[in-house]
Amino acid sequence: MITSRRIPRGFSLLEVVITIAIVAILAALAIPSFLGTSRRSKVRTEVTAYFNDLRMRIEQFAEEHGSFPPTLGESMGWPAAASMSKQPIFPLPAAWEAIRMMPTGPTEVYCSYTWATGAGGDATNVGPQAAAFFAFTAPDQDWYYLLAHCDLDGDPLVDSFYFSSSANPILQIRDEGR
Question: pTM higher than 0.85 for the full model?
Answer without folding.
Answer: no
